[in-house]
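Ligand-bound model needed. uracil.
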Amino acid sequence: MRLAKYLAEAGIASRRKAEQFIVQGRVRVNGLLVKEKGYIINPGFDRVEFDGRIITREEKVYILLNKPVGYICSVFDPQGRPTVMDLVKDINLRVYPVGRLDFDTEGLLLLSNDGEFTNLMIHPRYEMTKTYQALVAGKPGEESLRMLQEGIQLEDGVTAPAQVNILKAYKDKTLLEIKIHEGRKRQVKRMCLAAGHLVISLKRTAFGFLNLQGVAPGKYRFLTPEEVNKLKQYAWSDRG
Ligand code: URA
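Prediction:
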């Protein structure tokens, strides 16, 4: 394996930046300075040091968390609110949220220490479908539903087409299922409001083909290698 790739996978820097570190003489292999950026190592055998620190590659982990309302999706909150990290404290690895759910949004959130995977999952180019259940005030009529489906003007531009279905109609509120593949800040709430309906509560029920089955609020499970591969293939596949 290339030394730069090893450093990148250990979370030191991007592959390109890691190559610069090698050329700058900040990396040693088995105690010897290596300045050749294409240098090949045997990961299970060679001892790599960066700035004098021994570097070990972290095992990659992929977690599906059922986030409850009242947790913030960041590693640290200056306001001292609970973070999703509090829910995965027993994992001895640094993981990060894959995208975000608002403090008052619940549901499916992925966490991982694999930067490449995170990028694949959140980049709009890869069109990962996110499914939400939004309880909205009032009864969206045909016009509101059409606006949501075809794309609606928000302050940061028109949204891409979405799939919208009415799941349940109450007297003065409606449960909608909304499928989007963008991931703009507070997107579903802003879309619904722009269509004339305030979101009362919001839950992400699916991410691609993954759902919350068997994972209670506040609990998590590890994704299987098959699920991780399927997610990557799903992102890479050309879905026109
Ligand atoms: N859309 C929102 O408005 N909020 C979320 O947390 C996720 C999607």
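The chain has a mean pLDDT of 93.
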